[in-house]
Structure formats: structure tokens, C-alpha cells
Amino acid sequence: MTRLLIHLRRYSVYRGLTDLYARSPMARVLIVCIVPLLWIIGTTVAPLAQMVLVSFYESFPVREGEAARWTLANYASFFERPLYLTAFMRSFVFATVVTFLTLLVVFPIAYYIAKVAPRGRRTRLLLLVIAPFWVSEIIRSFAWIVMLANRGAVNSFFSFIGIPGTPVELLYNNFSLTIGVIYLTSLYMLLPLYAALEKIDDNVLEAAANLGAPAWRRFLRIVLPLSRDGVVAGCSLVFLLVIGLYAMPQLLGGPGNTLFATTIGQIFAKAGASWPQGSAFSIILTGAALAYVGLFVAIFQRRGRGRA
């Protein structure tokens, strides 16, 4: 190894980089971050920039030898048909409700693993929760179809215990879509919550209990404020994931549950030059979702500073 370093130091490029790394803190940051930055630019920024460009085209692909014609009609078409605006608003309402329900369902699980379960079992419990997510979204969607079908496990159980009106229509409606999406996104809520809850010092909770604070007060005054970062991160991840779902709404939702991402997919699937319109709608959805999450994060940060 020493010989290799001595050999490399003979090259001016290597020597220049090492000297720059030693002298400049900014250069150290840049050298360390250059690969992640290139990855983010190449896989996220560049495709998004290309989609923004295509969204202003009159047609795509541009024919060879012809100049690209620019237009705002692709964005204006979003406001021309109420169907698009309805699906757009439905997506935001649905994503907000599902995010809140996911938080309610997952928070007790994360708290149990982080604070109640013995330390030796926490890793195994996390693996047990994560294991179902090794299976693809399509397989999990069909598993829910089998579970919620008229002759599935749920309706069979209802029939066994004598519930009248069975089979109950559980598929292809808001119920099946909500259950499936909560199951799909629960991991993205669990991991940030677990990381935040696990950092809370047990001595603080024990001190509050010794001073006579009941469980609900300890939760409201200690656990919830100290887990705020995990709640914000988990809700942001789940919302952004739900707002862009395509496969599961197609499989578990009904005609009245069409989300905007599904509408965008249908536009891209049309024959002809429909990609500029689909790109424009994608940019609208992405920008609105990021602004919505940014406002949510800003509100929580302001409240956190106010309490501090």
C-alpha cells in the first residue's frame, strides 16, 4: 500500500488533488460529494430538466430537420377539462388522508419497537416488519385482491361469524385502495419514526413518571415533541410516494378513485404526440407536491422553534 501511494504521488494530478484537499475545506467537501452529486444530477435533475423542456414542445419527438415549436397549451389544457382538476384535487386529498392514517397506524408500532420491546429483540422485530417489503408492489397488490375478494379470506371470515349482507363489497373502492396504500407505505413511515423515537432518552421518560406525569402527558409533552423530526420525515416520504402511485390505484381502485398519476400514465399511453401534455402534467404534479410538503415542513419547524 505504501509503495502504491509513493507511486501515485509522482503524478501531478494526484499530487495536485491531495494538496488541494489538505489546504481547502471547501475542496474536501467537493471531493467527497462529487460522486453523489453526479449521481443525483444524472438520475434526477437531468431527466426532470428534460421533462420540463418537453412540456413546452408543441409535439415530441421533434422531426429531424425541423425546429422545435414552443407553446404553453400543454399547461393550459390542465385547466380546460374539469376531469383533470378533479383527479388532481382527489390525489392531494387522498394522499393527505392516507398519510395521516399511516401515521396513526405505524406510530404505536414504532414506539413499541423503539421503547417497549427488549433491546435484544428490536432488530428482529424490525426485520419481521421489513420482510414483506422484499416482495414487489404488484404481488402485494394481488395479495390484497385475494384477501378482499367476494370469496376471499375477509368475506369468508364475515360469513363464518354470521355477519348479514355478506359478501361485502371490499374491492375496487376507496376502502381497498386505502388499505393497500397504507400497507405499501408503512415502511417509509416506520423507519424515520423508529430512528427518532429510539434517540429519546429513557431516563427523561422515567423522570417524568417519577414526578407524577401520567402516560398521556408524557406522550404529549415529551415523546411527541422529541419525535417531531421523525414525524415530519415520515409524513413527507409517505405523501410524496402516495401522490405518485400508479400501479396500486390501477389494481385496487375503481373508476371513481382515479388519481392524477393514473391520468398522466393514460396520457403518455395515448397514440400520437401526447408526451408534451403528459410532461406538463407531471411537472404540475411534482411542483405542487413539493410545494405542499415544503409548506408542511415549514409549519412544523416554526411550531418547533416557537415551543423551544
TrEMBL record:
Gene3D superfamilies: MetI-like (1.10.3720.10). GO terms for biological process: transmembrane transport. PROSITE patterns: ABC_TM1. Keywords: Cell membrane, Membrane, Transmembrane, Transmembrane helix, Transport. One of its GO terms (cellular component) is plasma membrane. Pfam families: BPD_transp_1. The chain crosses the membrane at residues 29-53, 92-113, 125-150, 170-191, 230-248, 280-300. It is found in: Cell membrane. Belongs to the binding-protein-dependent transport system permease family. CysTW subfamily. This is Spermidine/putrescine transport system, permease. It comes from Nitratireductor aquibiodomus RA22. The lineage of its organism: Bacteria, Pseudomonadati, Pseudomonadota, Alphaproteobacteria, Hyphomicrobiales.
